Amino acid sequence: MPCKFCKDKPVITLTNNNVNLCRSCFVRYFERKALKTVSKYSLINDNEVIGIACSGGKDSFSVLHIVNLLAEKRKNIKIKIIAIDEGIKTYRDLEFLKKYCKENNLELHTYSFEKEFGITLDEIVKKLKLKPCSACGVLRRFLLNSKARELKVDKLVTGHNLDDEAQTIIMNNFRGTLERSARLGPITGVKKDKRFIPRIKPLYFLTEKEVAVYAFIKKFPIDFNECPNSKISYRSDVRKLINSFEEKHQGTKHAIINSFLEELPLLKKQFQTSVIKSCSICEEPCSSEICKVCGFINKIKTVK
Ligand code: SF4
Ligand code: ZN
Fold first, then answer.
1. Predicted confidence (pLDDT) per residue in 97-119, tens digit
2. Which of 4, 84, 86, 180 reaches 20 to 30 Å from 123, CA-CA?
3. Which residues surround ligand 2, an ion (CB under 5 A)?
4. Tens digit of each residue's pLDDT (9 = 90 or more) over 18-71
């Protein structure tokens, strides 16, 4: 079947409605959909400083391009790119991203676990015998939030797509951690606390496949290296499960997101009363006496 709009050769079939699109109609569809998410949920407003968390992968390059399109149109949005090197052997390589930012005159700030915490992720995992992704997620979120605040960023853009969000929703259901789901959605957060920089997700309604096709068409200089830890993660199991369901029952991923968005106001209401404390060591916001990051650092000091 040719492209629905111009009868040209198709490059993709959209999974939620079986529509075929050619290269240029798909690019238009993708950019419109991302920009519609930005305007519908008021993700980016005039005169804001927007931080973009970039890993150098397809999602972050795509979202960077979308926010850049918006900044070129509006002229009153400032962009600061934040990249984190976790210290994973054979993986994180920020060279493509650095070159791209230099060529496109984009302000890039890079940080590493090694410099900020005095230890790489590989060393933490080895020392504490932890699951890499849980430690990585906690430390990266902490760094992104504290550095975004230091850089006086109003909102932090992430490249999360529809597949990522559907996986996180199911992971929270399977693990019984519904409180975490209350923080999800196109803009994160349950309660306003000026120490938390809101995270926004312009690619929220675009699938992983759509982002991959967009990044391919746009020829972004992507680092195709896959993290060696991704295969052993809980997320990877949930991802396989959802993908196999989607294959048999088309539209499953969109249905997970749509039903979640209907429940989200209730979840937010339910978990609004949970108290945000300050970590007694680093004073960052957290839910217990000591934040998870300081918990890790304390453990590292005691383990030989
Ligand atoms: Fe970190 Fe896990 Fe992602 Fe690797 S797969 S970058 S360890 S969260
Ligand atoms: Zn702390």
1. 999 999 999 999 999 999 999 99
2. 180
3. 279, 281-282, 291, 294
4. 899 999 999 999 999 999 999 999 999 999 999 999 998 999 999 999 999 999
Between strands 78-85 and 108-112, the pairing is: parallel
- Which tokens hold the place of 112? 């590493």
Please identify which residue in the block is written with the tokens 């749509």.
Answer: 258
Contact (Cβ atoms closer than 8 angstroms) between residue 260 and residue 168: no
Q: Which pair of tokens denotes residue 235?
A: 């997320």
Distance CA 241, CA 253 (A): 11
Nearest CA to ligand 1 atom 5: 230
Token digits of residue 81: 């790119």
Query: Which pLDDT score, from 0 to 100, does residue 170 have?
Result: 98
Single-letter code of the amino acid located at 87: G
Contact 234, 189 (CB under 8 A): no
CA of 140, closest atom in ligand 1: 1
**pTM, two decimal places:** 0.93
How many Å is the Cα radius of gyration of the chain? 20
